[in-house]
UniProtKB/TrEMBL annotation:
NCBIfam families: small_GTP. It is found in: Mitochondrion. InterPro entries: EFG2, EFG_II, EFG_III, EFG_III/V, EFG_V, EFG_V-like, EFTu-like_2, G_TR_CS. Belongs to the TRAFAC class translation factor GTPase superfamily. Classic translation factor GTPase family. EF-G/EF-2 subfamily. It comes from the Eukaryota. SMART domains: EFG_C. This is Ribosome-releasing factor 2, mitochondrial. Mitochondrial GTPase that mediates the disassembly of ribosomes from messenger RNA at the termination of mitochondrial protein biosynthesis. Not involved in the GTP-dependent ribosomal translocation step during translation elongation. One of its GO terms (biological process) is regulation of mitochondrial membrane potential. Keywords: GTP-binding, Mitochondrion, Nucleotide-binding, Protein biosynthesis. GTP binds at residues 17-24, 81-85, 133-136. It comes from Naumovozyma castellii.
Amino acid sequence: MKIPFPLARLRNIGIIAHIDAGKTTTTERLLYYAGKISRFGDVHTGDTITDFLPQERARGITIQNATVSLPWNKHVINLIDTPGHMDFFYEVMRALKVLDGCVVVMDAVAGVQSQTETCWKFARKVPKICFINKMDRVGAGYSRTLMELIWKLNSRVVLVNIPIFKKTQDGDSFCGVLDIVNQKVMKWDLNDPEKIDISDVLDSENDSLIEQYTKCRQSMVDTLSLFDDVLVKSFLEHADGDYLKLDSKTLNESIRKATIQNQVTPIVCGSSFKNIGVQPLLDSIINYLPSPLEAVFPDVNKDVIKGPMKRDDKLGILFNENKDLCAALAFKIIHDPIRGTMVFVRIYSGILKNGHTVHNTTTGKSFKIGKLVRMNANIPEEITHLNAGEIGVITGSTISENISTGDTLISHSIKKDGLKTLSRKPEFNLKINPMITPPPVFTVSIEPRTLGNKKSMEDALHILTVEDPSLHVSHDAESGQILLSGMGELHLQIAKNRLLNELNAEVEVGKVMVSYKEIINKGSNEITIQNENGYKFTINVSPIEEEKLASLLSEDGSNLVTENETWYPLGSDNNYLVMEKNIKYALEKEWPLQLSYESIVNSLISSSVVVLQHGGKRRNFPLYSCAVKVKGDWEIPIDTTSPMEILSISRSILSKTLTDLPEEEYSVLEPSMNLKVLVNQKDMGPVIQDLTGARSCTILSIEEDSLTKDENAVEFQKIAHDQYLPPDSTLNMARLENDDISKKVINATAPLKAMMAYSNKLRSLTQGRGEFYMTYRGMEKLTQDRMNSLDDA
């Protein structure tokens, strides 16, 4: 089959940033200049391509990932526009699982913001370029933002272009960029978005501009020389030690290599809203971010990989050098009113074709897929196949019950029914980039308005949780209520709106509450059940030591396989199923049972989730951070083909182990948050008093806004000091030591319950000048005072 373009010309990238940094506006401009749309969409008027949900257009924010493809300079860019609000960070997490590179958009006025730091840290292995946006705004600071980027994000930078301004009656006005690599001055016509005036910087009569260009060139070469011996050789031998004589090709190759190795971050700037700097951003995506042939290898379960992974120019990654294997990761699911369930996949190996049978390595099930489509936001384009490296969508009548977010799908690249060939190979159980769902921290109750509405309510909740696994549905055994849990108040507001207005569920939604959990303080006794049908299981439950778990599991939380145990995650409550190695069956040359090992494990996972979700003895809150350990002497009859008796036996054992534990061995947990409050110096007293008094917060530190206190701070402060930064009046203002205008950062830990509706209080205490950001820290045991307040609620 002819491949329409080589993998080297493909880019899979994401746009990530803090909320309101301009991600969606930037995406609109990228689409326009690539020729995909004929007019600009605007966030404020609600007509953007990637923000197509009614709630996105009404609120002016991105809620879910949107995928688009665009051509540029004989390349194809698959782009995912991600949300910036912290309530929807799971969308960013799953997008980064399938991306090879990303563009970090920063607001030149606000600088490096809290969610930018969170996204940057999560994407630490992903090559990045930075687009400093909103350079046309009053208070925009290119060099100040760079200074913060180096200090706060611990990254060296290479200035690919810098802003240029023209004098007006109202002061300096941003009009274009100075291209450091190609030594060009680029000025945009604000009345004609297609018109750019390009000239050679060395022909300019502006001495200041030439001086900035010269210093930026020198800084660029000096930084790249730390990592690239080829550049050093070219600089000394071909450029005669002259920074200005190095050719653009050599510089671009050096920047690309250092970016892909995460040694530097290329910096470009502009104003997406004013259509300035977008074309250079497109060029930088092509020039500096990796193709699928250069990207970091995905994380896989190492027990199925017998040697190093390799790449093929046409087939992508070869797992065990198997050229017949097609491997894909399902990273997003949506329900379309016309096409039904649609599963977004990234192809890592081989070619996926219409109508092929695929195998889900998570569930162990095989099924036939329908048509394939490529999405441009909400507009589908039917295709016959997906090549390695591409992002597309699977459709079909049976996929809704067979695929979940994070599942790995494999099929035969050539034969329509070639799974039988693959089933004898170890990569038949391949799992790519496992996804960990963060625990929900807010909850609302959901009730059908009438008994006749119960089925439609359950169907609507199923659609919500399949599309967004960071939403979680549970049953309160004490009250009989259905509970919907999510990542934040806005997250649940959006879910409520979708239930009522898009999915037309006739339900009543309660007030937002905090999600509490319970934990056991000590392990249970081992309980063995061996029945007359030949089934035997020995199970116990114990609390997980966080430090031990951190040392056992890989960074992405994938299943751990040791010599004697395998750890399987049980949903979002930090619970795990621990399977000891079964010596009896391991000694067999071939698997002797009719029921597959994966089916047995999935049955034990299902029963464990149900019992742990049923709750503890204190307040019937779901159990958290528990290890359900199955001893390796389990047995089942050879001719068993149904897992139902395994479900029944394991559920009864688990229920008995937890029932036998006395109530005093259970403790209640509440969500604890990392809190960062930015306030002026003069507002510090009232804010700290409120935090430590009414809200039971623990103050960790108080810092200047411009500094980050960590082990790399001193090193990167020096790097920032040595880095050439173009003239910037806001940088000088930031260095003033005026207590009345300098921002302070209060770092604290806080119980989530105490921080509900905090924004109104902070606004009152600071006359609207304060800001705060929260990120999930973990679950902590309630103190007696807070337990008493919970009992009184």
